[in-house]
């Protein structure tokens, strides 16, 4: 005769594998918590975006943080260059006024100089060392 079902499962406890119930362990355990303050509008916007993506708010927040493009603040040098560009814009405005008066040769020469300065300033802002962080 064969062994009954009861006898098959009556092995000593050391021989049986332990089956703990419950949820399997997570691959990434999130133990840290961050608290931030939001306005009602910001909270609504974030929850709406998460809902549109079909995600929990916390999951959406993590994904948004990982994919965010951060542009560094302007350095002192860059701010100086921006100030210079503002001055150049003012000069161009003055030249436009003079062109309306009729001093065209002087204006053409000054415009050529200003275009060179603008080109140099734009090359500075588009240089490769201003990468995302």
Properties at a glance:
5 helices, mainly alpha, elongated
Q: Can you offer a commentary on this structure?
A:
Helix 2 crosses helix 3 and helix 4 packs antiparallel against helix 5. By secondary structure, this protein is mainly α. It is elongated and about 105 Å long. The longest helix is centred in the middle third of the chain and has 26 residues. It starts with a helix and ends in an 8-residue tail after the last helix. Among the domains are: 30 residues; 50 residues.
Q: Overall mean pLDDT score?
A: 78
How many strand segments? 0
DSSP helical segment count: 5
Portion in strands: under 5%
Report Rg.
Answer: 34 Å
Characterize the largest beta sheet: strand count, sense, and whether it forms a barrel: none
The percent of residues in helical segments reads 55-70%
Structural class estimated from helices and strands:
mainly alpha
Oligomer: single chain
Please provide the ordered H/E string of secondary-structure elements: HHHHH
The end-to-end distance, rounded to whole angstroms, is 74 Å
- Unreliable stretches: none
Shape: elongated
Protein topology:
Layout: H1 5-8, H2 40-53, H3 57-67, H4 76-101, H5 104-125
Helix pairs in contact: 2-3, 4-5
Summarize the structure.
With about 130 residues, this protein is mainly α. Helix content is about 60%, strand content about 0%.
